[in-house]
Design a protein that fits this description.
By secondary structure, this protein is α/β, with parallel strands linked by helices. It has four helices and four strands; from the N terminus they run E-H-E-H-E-H-E-H. It has a single domain, classed as Rossmann fold (3-Layer(aba) Sandwich), CATH 3.40.50. It has a four-stranded parallel beta sheet with strand order 2-1-3-4. Strand 1, helix 1 and strand 2 form a beta-alpha-beta unit. The radius of gyration is 17 Å and the shape is flat. It starts with 10 loop residues before the first strand and ends with a helix.
Length: 123
Amino acid sequence: MYMNWTEKKPIRVAILDMNEGFINQGMRCIREILNQFGENSHVDLSWDEFEVRLEKQVPDLSYDIYISSGGPGSPLESEGNEWEQVYFGWLSKVEHWNSNPAHGKKKACFLYMSFLSTGLQAL
C-alpha cells in the first residue's frame, strides 16, 4: 500500500551527545534546528538524546536519523576508553545495517569541533 502525501510518517532522531557533561551551544543549536524543521515542515519529528561519554549510552537501530555532536578535548586523548569502544561498536552496527541492500539506509551526521592547537602539536 502506498502512502498518501497527506499521511505523515513520524521521523525519529537520535542525538548522540559527545560533550561529556559540558554545556555548549552545539547541543542547543541541534535541538533548535530540529524544532524549527519540524514546525516549518509540518513533520512529526521526535528525538532522544544519548550521553555517550559519561553514561556510555548509544541508540539502537530503530531511529531514522542519527546526529553525533562534537565534543571537548582532543579525540586522540580518549583513544581506547570504554565509551569509545561503545560508540564505535554502535557505528559498526549502523555500517552493517547500511551494507544490506534489503534495509533502508540509516542517515547519520557527524559533527566535529576542530581543536587547532592540539592538531598542530600532533603534527
